[in-house]
Amino acid sequence: MNQLMYQLGETFSSLRKNVAMVASVVLVTFISLTFVGTAALMQLQINQMTQDFYDRLEISVFLCTDASAEAVCPTGAVTDSQRESIEEMIDTGAANQYVDSYRYESQEEALENFLADREDSVRAANVTAEDMTESFRLLLVDPQDFGIVNELFAGVPGVENVADQQAVLDQIFGILNGLTVVALIIAGVMIVCTVLLVSTTIRLSAFSRRRETSIMRMVGASKSMIRTPFIFEGIIAALVGAALACAATWVVAEFLIGQWLAQQVTGIVFIGAAESWLVMPGLVLSAMLLAGLASWVTVRKHLRV
């Protein structure tokens, strides 16, 4: 215990003597781990959105109209019997096992939805119900079964085409995943800077205390006794930066994502402060491992004991 207290005393003494360099380590660690924490929160949000959107992913079975291409709809607009046959196929037929729920959207309802989304559009005023396509909107038990459902309805009389929103969602999530990668790249660069700063700080500290180290070596102090305070120094500085990064991650999750974004964008389930606690242990552990390893390597290389 006395040995540990001595080592901690030496560590804090050295921290006071190298305030500028220690502050640099704290600041760079804080910035780098904040990027890491933000990237982790983004990935958690993407996972949340992916699950939420895919649970609500609609498959649209568009029916033939008078304007449909003859190659696709050789019999012209869908007939009542064809419509009933398609609905029966969804209700009790081959597609039933894949469909969780469905609704029918008439041309009039499609026009209402179209106009509701384009209230200020001049072009929308000239659109009539005959210009719209009636459809069946399906929610699948498993969105991954879209290919099977598409094959089931391919070539069915009265069906023009089958479409889903997955292609659009994949593009959106691709962009968001790209932003996560950019954040991780920036974080990686900053982490390298942190490791270099920790190494530099330990080297300067070892150089400034070389006379004291020589005396300790002469009186028979062990290698661990001499080296441990330097390693503690790097770890403590990094932990302070990690603590600040954890606080910043909590602020981003609680106020930026959980409150501000949730108010700006409705209809999406956003993560909150609770998810930031899942990220924090990783930030602290990363800081300890990186700083501890960098300090240990530097001490072994530049501190001759």
From TrEMBL:
Spans through the membrane: 21-42, 181-207, 228-257, 277-299
One Gene Ontology term, aspect cellular component: plasma membrane
Record's keyword terms, sorted: Cell cycle, Cell division, Cell membrane, Membrane, Transmembrane, Transmembrane helix
Positions of the ABC3 transporter permease C-terminal domain: 185-301
Localisation per UniProt entry: Cell membrane
Membrane topology (UniProt): Multi-pass membrane protein
Residues of the FtsX extracellular domain: 57-162
Subunit structure: Forms a membrane-associated complex with FtsE.
Family: Belongs to the ABC-4 integral membrane protein family. FtsX subfamily.
Function: Part of the ABC transporter FtsEX involved in cellular division.
Protein name: Cell division protein FtsX
Organism: Nesterenkonia sphaerica
Lineage: Bacteria, Bacillati, Actinomycetota, Actinomycetes, Micrococcales
